[in-house]
Amino acid sequence: MSKKQKLELTWIGKENRPQLEPRILLEDPARCYHAAHRMSDKDIFDNRLIFGDNLLALKALEAEFSSKVKCVFIDPPYNTGSAFTHYDDGVEHSIWLSLMRDRLEIIRRLLSEDGSLWITIDDNEAHYLKVLCDEVFGRANFVCNVIWEKADSPRNSARQFSTDHDHLLVYSKLPDWIPRKLARTDAANSIYANQDNDPRGAWLPGDPYANKPYSKGQYKITGPTGREFSPPAGRFWRISEEKLRELDKDGRVWWGPTGNARPSIKRYLSEVGDLVPRTLWSKDDVGSNRTSKNEMRSLFPEDESFGTPKPERLLKRVIEIATNPGDLVLDSFAGSGTTGAVAHKMGRRWIMVELGEHCHTHIIPRLKKVIDGEDTGGISKAVIWKGGGGFRYYRLAPSLLEKDKWGNWVINHDYNAAMLAEALCKLEGFTYAPSDAVYWQHGRSTERDFVYVTTASLTHEQLQQLSDAVGPDRSLLVLCTSFRVMGINAADAYPNLTVKKIPNQVLARCEWGHDDYSLQVENLPKEPHKPGQRSLFDGDET
């Protein structure tokens, strides 16, 4: 392979990309919830719980939240085979990769410049997903593969190996992303001691040698007992002789209990900082699958719906590393709602997306307990959680266009005037901002560029009135069902107006009426196998 060739993951149907409709979100006040009173000035009320297909929801968020999300955590279906009984290996694997690719591309656009993505996955797809993420985010933005010890006991019924871990793939928006350090733990501090009653407190002996050549790093030094010390062959002192003697005079060099050992430079506990995150996360530190199941049982004693929820301590560590208080966290595979619950307790803003009915039967009741201060499990005690804040509930609007009884695309009858204006603003790249004072200002792209949406059929006189009202220093996009300007060149007659018909203007933009892009792929049609076509695994990587 030449240096210019790029390693690329290929699969059946990779070239097919959905033309997603940027739906609007409809708030349902009856399902929104907030605390009865403020607990503190830091309470957050504008969190969002979105019910609907998560790919369409991500697209719906893109215009408002592009480059604003600090941390994305997702726990997608692992594609273990149980959901693909109707597919051969190549096809189900291809469908899964395409569905993940489409989501990852929008997630990348949502991430802030200092944002990061965290994906839990098992061995079945982890390594394909790694290459896919390399393509979407760039290989330079791969941060690490965290290994999470998810099992707290071996599974002796396993045919080959008892799987004890999951992967947590971490990607950043830009290569210079720096994770936040973790607070020191008792275990980390326990290795420090004070063997010589140093008044500066506990310390740890540091290796005085280095492998890197150092011009002042080759010398002999005599210890308290007269014994001479030199660096081992091929190694060097880390510091100059002058500096070592200076530290020794200050009591910062340890020569062993009898003064006859090689010198070690003391590292004082009082002078070390917080901990750089490591890539091995044990069940004792962040919990296991059993931990999370117990957390769910405490919230829903009679329900065993969630087989592998994630423990709150796992999410706490992710959010600690990736965000600061007040930052925005997104989970587009909300599941049991752990991400939102933990982010809420930690003072982060959050957005969650869930299509399943457990959005209503589990996530909302769970969040209500968090907000009311009734959830005392998980990380509540660790963060001293007392309740507060709230969230707003949204559902995806139906498709803007639907077919009438003759098979023609028309504006969906469920859309009122405000919904139509908001939807077309989103499609045309305008910010929906209806004016109370000026009827034709439904949205704007700049301070001088506006959009007006109407289902009326406009006459020449009406368009002329609009043009006069807009004036020569502003421009207006007019979206209407039809307009009549017989014998008139509209571009000359209304130079500050651009008049277009709906739905004709948007027909070719999107896949209209498509409501389900979910990863519940058992309902998707099977890919027909063409004669002579290679299977996916005849050559995945080229």
From TrEMBL:
Region (Disordered), start-end ranges: 522-542
Enzyme Commission number, as recorded: 2.1.1.72
Stored Pfam families: N6_N4_Mtase
Top EC class, one word: transferase
Matches recorded under InterPro entries: DNA_methylase_N4/N6, N4/N6-MTase_EcoPI_Mod-like, SAM-dependent_MTases_sf
Keywords: Methyltransferase, S-adenosyl-L-methionine, Transferase
Residue intervals of the DNA methylase N-4/N-6 domain: 69-361
Coiled coil: none
Reaction catalyzed: a 2'-deoxyadenosine in DNA + S-adenosyl-L-methionine = an N(6)-methyl-2'-deoxyadenosine in DNA + S-adenosyl-L-homocysteine + H(+)
Similarity field: Belongs to the N(4)/N(6)-methyltransferase family.
Protein name (database record): site-specific DNA-methyltransferase (adenine-specific)
Organism of derivation: Candidatus Accumulibacter phosphatis
